[in-house]
Design a protein that fits this description.
The chain is an alpha/beta fold and about 350 residues long. The chain has helices at about 1-20, 30, 45-55, 100-105, 130-135, 135-155, 165-175, 195-200, 205-215, 225-230, 240-250, 275-285, 315-325, and strands spanning about 65-70, 80-85, 110-115, 155-165, 180-185, 220, 235, 265, 290. About 40% of the residues lie in helices and about 15% in strands.
């Protein structure tokens, strides 16, 4: 009788863990199969293909993937393409007007690819939280590899800028692909969370992590301003954060010393979201990297440190430092590669 009771209890526990730890329903292929550039595709054709792809999805117009072309470029390829990879729950609006300002400062014709990561950019009330939960690590890896391929198709050099989770993902890309410069803004190489740090939550099996997170139910956030409410996902199931943990684990498994391009990093040492000590360790491993810690936004967690939404007073300083970092030393004029 005791053995049977114990067996029933164990089976019940396993069923609960299995139920709560199940993998979320994946995104439909129509959302993940992005248009690949044909060898003969012009930048204008590729931009139109991207627009058509994004317009078919339930995505907020201001957060769609967008290829912004430099009107001064007369050659087949621009001198530079900047790829921007946003953070979790957010979109490229988080940093505006950083990209627009930066593209004007570079001494080269510059296209900008604003990447929307899979599962992001949804419209509140239209499956926004569910889409965020459905995105997988493989989706995100495919996203950034597609962005790199697209950037190399339209420009001679590729610079990648990543914020938060997008910074970690961009670092992984730099380990996998040749890029010419990497800029990290509050990159998430570790989570500044007691559970994650002390219980080593990131090393738990995915099934068990999802069980714990799904059992916690929903996370309800409070917007700090109107734009925050509009462009971030404020309410979502805790299990959606499993994606961030997977990205952190991915970049922690990388040999960062293999990154050959120069790296510039910005992070407030009091960042309450991304673990600063993990960033410091990563920067030391990369070697060819410079870290600035004197950027402070208006957000209470010191995590979003550029852009008009949370850090209007910091954007120019960051733009100036990035442009100095990315500009060629000979200070050629923008028309030289036209």
């Amino acid at each position: 009788m005791i053995v049977e009771t114990i067996a029933v209890i164990l089976v019940s526990i396993l069923l609960v863990v299995y139920y709560y730890g199940r993998v979320p329903k994946p995104l439909h292929a129509s959302e993940t199969e992005r248009p690949n550039p044909r060898p003969d595709a012009t930048p204008e054709t590729l931009r139109a293909m991207i627009e058509q792809f994004e317009e078919k999805l339930p995505i907020m117009p201001g957060l769609r993937t967008e290829l912004v072309l430099d009107g001064n470029c007369k050659q087949e390829k621009a001198g530079v393409c900047i790829v921007y990879v946003h953070g979790w729950k957010a979109g490229h609006k988080e940093c505006e007007p950083l990209l627009e300002s930066l593209s004007k400062e570079l001494n080269s014709t510059t296209h900008v690819l604003k990447l929307r990561l899979s599962g992001h950019g949804g419209i509140p009330g239209n499956g926004q939280a569910e889409r965020l939960s459905s995105a997988s690590l493989e989706n995100l890896k495919s996203d950034i590899l597609w962005a790199h391929k697209t950037a190399t198709h339209v420009a001679k050099k590729v610079f990648v800028i990543g914020h938060s989770m997008g910074g970690a993902l961009s670092t992984w890309c730099a380990c996998e692909q040749k890029i010419d410069g990497l800029v990290l803004i509050a990159p998430c190489f570790g989570l500044n969370d007691d559970t994650f740090t002390y219980l080593k939550f990131g090393s738990w099996p995915s099934l068990l992590r999802r069980s714990v997170l799904r059992a916690k139910g929903y996370k309800y956030g409070k917007a700090e301003n109107e734009a925050h409410a509009k462009y971030w996902v404020m309410n979502y199931p805790h299990v959606a954060s499993e994606l961030v943990i997977q990205v952190v684990n991915l970049v922690q498994s990388c040999n960062l010393s293999c990154i050959e391009c120069p790296v510039l990093c910005f992070q407030h040492c009091d960042d309450q979201t991304a673990l600063f000590s993990a960033t410091k360790t990563a920067i030391d491993q990369i070697g060819n990297a410079k870290l600035f810690t004197d950027c402070e936004g208006d957000a209470l967690d010191h995590h979003v440190i550029c852009g008009d939404i949370f850090a209007p007073g910091q954007t120019k300083k960051i733009v100036d430092r990035i442009s100095t970092f990315l500009n060629p030393s000979n200070k050629e004029h923008r028309g030289a590669d036209n």
